Amino acid sequence: MADTRDALVDVRSGDRWLVAVAHPDDESFGCGSAIAYAAVHGAQVTLACATRGEAGEPVPGSADGVDLGVVREGELHRAATRLGIARVELLGYRDSGFDGAPPTGSLCATPLDEVAGVLTDLLREVDPEVVLVLDGSDGHRDHVLIRAAARQAVAAHRRADGRPLLVEHCLPNGLLRRWLAEMQAVRPDTAYHALDPATLGRDDADITDVLDTSAVLDRREAAIAEHRSQVSPFDGLSPELRRAFLTADHLARVELGVHTG
């Protein structure tokens, strides 16, 4: 009999999830609660991380005299353990950085079809019920590219039964408006006052699911803490707003055509 359950919310032991991110810490700062939610319900989670985050700006003293990529790779594996991720696959691209010409060998210097092909091969191997990716609405070019590659890979691999389900992790505009108001109040002399609230994050109307992940907050916090070389985006938030970010994951299901080849 065909499995007609909703694999996103009705996660069961033996399910498989594939999570595709661009950098170490995306899995914890971004979609960590959804990952932990799946893992505690018995899913085998595979994390594909495109780069080692070499272009990041480390916290002073956290990577002195050591290759930042090595530091961040170690943080990634420790955070993955905290979240319950079963397998980590590093895809081997270099971090593209925020701007300028993408370095040779970086994610954004690589043709989209090539990156999508790597993810397609992994999809065939893992055969997941759910594929999870960040929606790229923060504008980082590596996030945008890995999202596009995931969409292309799932479109090429999706079966007639709709599997795998592609889900994008989002930061809804309504929540980011709360964040902006708080930042403007506590740091009035910074650039936050110049941000346009209307351009922040994902339109709330795009959100299809909100997972209550309060039960895995301890796992999420522990994973975030492993990324010692990076400044957490949740540092300095009021307890109420921090909890709003970390105990509910906002997701958007992506409708794609069925591959028949």
What does this structure look like?
The chain is of the alpha/beta class and about 260 residues long. It has one domain: LmbE-like (Rossmann fold). The chain contains eight helices and seven strands, in the order βααβαβαβαβαβααβ. A seven-stranded mixed beta sheet has the order 3-2-1-4-5-7-6, sandwiched between helices. Helix 5 (about 140-155) links the parallel strand 4 and strand 5 (about 165-170). It starts with 15 loop residues before the first strand and ends in a 7-residue tail after the last strand.
Sheet with most strands? 7 strands, mixed
Number of domains: 1
Q: Report the average pLDDT across residues.
A: 93
Q: Would you tell me the structural class of the helices and strands? A: alpha/beta
Helix and strand run: EHHEHEHEHEHEHHE
Query: Which CATH class is shown?
Result: Alpha Beta
Report the radius of gyration as a whole number of Å.
Answer: 18 Å
Enzyme class: hydrolase
Protein name: PIG-L family deacetylase
EC number: 3.5.1.-
GO molecular function, one term: hydrolase activity
Write the layout of secondary structure elements.
Elements: E1 16-21, H1 26-30, H2 32-40, E2 44-51, H3 68-83, E3 87-93, H4 112-126, E4 130-134, H5 141-157, E5 165-170, H6 173-186, E6 209-212, H7 217-226, H8 239-246, E7 248-254
Parallel strand pairs: 1-2, 1-4, 2-3, 4-5
Antiparallel strand pairs: 5-7, 6-7
Helix pairs in contact: 3-7, 4-5
Looking at this protein, list some descriptive labels.
261 residues; alpha/beta; Rossmann fold; seven-stranded mixed sheet; 8 helices; globular; LmbE-like_dom_sf; zinc; PIG-L family deacetylase
